[in-house]
Amino acid sequence: MTEAPVNGTMAQEFRPFFEALAGGCISFPRCDTCGRFHWYPRYWCPYCGSVAIQWRKIDGRGTLYSWTTVHHAFSGDPPRPLPYIVGLVEFADAPGVRLITNIVGTDPARLFENMPLAPVISLTPQPTVAFEPVETASEVAHS
Ligand SMILES: [Zn+2]
Fold first, then answer.
1. In the chain, pLDDT over 70 holds for what percent of residues?
2. How far, in Å, is the centroid of ligand 1 from the Cα of 85?
């Protein structure tokens, strides 16, 4: 999941992302000068150098760009069930953004490139977001 650090060390430029999550929304920084989104957040546009950055709420639905399955815990990781899936998610209404996050609610063998995904926002103990597959009409008909 994309989650805020619990020890207070969150970089200030990420604060709007987690504040939007706390309100149940996903938002990304967008340059008012050139109109491009970027990620990770910066105080200036990586494309044109402008400091006219505004955070824009997006629909939140995305597609799977790439992923990996983690079978062994990393040193220092908080305990979590294994395996888990780390994915890169793209957003049609925030082109240029690829968010590193967790993919939940599915088996790794069922994933495919450009798979439609929906956000799963949790608010406690801190705002987090993961993504789950959106069932297609054919999957609903066969389940
Ligand atoms: Zn720009």
1. 87
2. 32
